[in-house]
Amino acid sequence: MELPFIVGGVLFAVFLLRALVKRLLYPRPLPGIPYDKESAKRITGDLPSIAATYKELTEWGLPIGRRSLKYGSPIHQLFMNPFTKPYVMIDDPHEVADLLLRRTKEFDKSTSAGVWQSFIPYSTIAQQTTPEWKAQRKTWQDSMHPDFLRRVVAKHIYVAAKDLTRLWEVRSLKSNGLPVDVSGDFSYAALDAIWTATFGEQLDLANAQIQMLETGKKIQTKGLDMHSTVQYINDLANTWRGSLWPALTRWRMQRNPDYRRYTEVKDREIDRILLDASARFQKILDGSSDGEEHDTCAMDLILRRSMLAAQKAGKPVPDPTKDQRMRDELLLFIYAGHDTTSTTLQWFVKHITNNQEAQTKLRDALRSAFPGDSLPDVADLLSKDVPYLNAAIEEALRCAATAGRTVRVATTDTVLFGHKIPAGTEIVPLTSVKWHPPQVSEELRSPSSRAALEKSGGVDWTLKPSAQDLDKFAPERWFKIDEKGNEVFDSGALFQNAFGGGTRGCFGRRLAMMELRIMITLIVMSFKFLPVPPEFNSFQVTEQLLRTPRQCFLKLEAV
């Protein structure tokens, strides 16, 4: 009697343990939302599929997002890690815009372990929307004010753009008519621009490249050290791909010698710059002036106000090197402002090289707006409206899909397309508009989404002329005929979710658009981008933190 009882107990325990393991480790799909059936049978969920997709295409975000077409549903789910709820992907630009812009009380920024939480955890991008976050964002809001950008920041971007054109002049002379790899050049120019705009001092990365080309000798500068540190952020992104245990991955990464080395370089430079600026601003604390004339960069603006506020409150002037929120926010300026612009510019020149007609139209429009033999100065460039330039920038943002997805978390039990979404579920909206998503009945959309459609005229966006041939680079899609019969630029021709939207939209959008406008104007007015052979013209992607072209070769001809 005892043996059967023991055997039965063991079998029951094994059954119970198996059921517990399955419940804890295996994916638990949300009811009604499509998913890959084979992935649901694995502890690793969709990770093998993602790894296989990345191995074949060197990207996974958009290809996996396109599963919506296979499922015939604008919503589907991914199984990424044990012990976690499924990720819910949204492939519908209309609903994505609604979620980001109008449903901010239901969906907040996700702060699950990642690059930003590991490297700059006190920056606004790494935090949820709390009162502390709002106070921190308010502190920095004037650094993105149009007046400050035009008065202080634009000139730094313009200098970096001019340096880029000089670098390309040298490259063109030494290329013997062959295509040259310019991917690094955009990175140097963008970092030159954003570093000076943030910290008020020059890295001279583009000039260092010019010297190396002219002398044949390697030039070592602090700029190259900082460039390597910034590029390391992209390498960090790869540590999370395929990670079953993100927290463990983060713990191990922070003990990696490379991580520590780059962190030390970053901290040393930031400390030096902050202390120099703090000493410079001591002279305004006598109260004779608010010191606005000393604002030469974003750091000056914020640091000066912080010091004056402490003095006014009768408190000791704070040591800026001990202000972790200020340090991390300054670094966010550098990381986010450098790589996104650099990557988008790479995609722009690739598309404009492969669309010679659009390139000619853009150059003609710029010459018409800025006549004469010389390049426009920065004030003229920013004050004059050039519709075709606006359209080319919007189309470049759409086609680049530099940040093709974002991540939100449901802060309450809610509904998407009629499906129940539990609080705590990670939502992954696709921000790019590169194909028509599966059709969905309007009554399944949120009330705010339906109201927005009605307000815009009730026309399905996929039926508009601007939404056709989405696989092509066509700036003309961003024009419409106004009531007077004139062709005018229409920023609403398509959903533009490249910068996200709402409270947690890209803080640096104005800066990025200014930088794109200045850089594109100067390079298009300075060079023709001639067709390049197929072996230099791949549109394959390398997806790390951002979606970057694997090749960026140009055949340059000065104009």
From TrEMBL:
Protein name: Cytochrome P450
Source organism per UniProt: Hypoxylon rubiginosum
Organism phylogeny: Eukaryota, Fungi, Dikarya, Ascomycota, Pezizomycotina
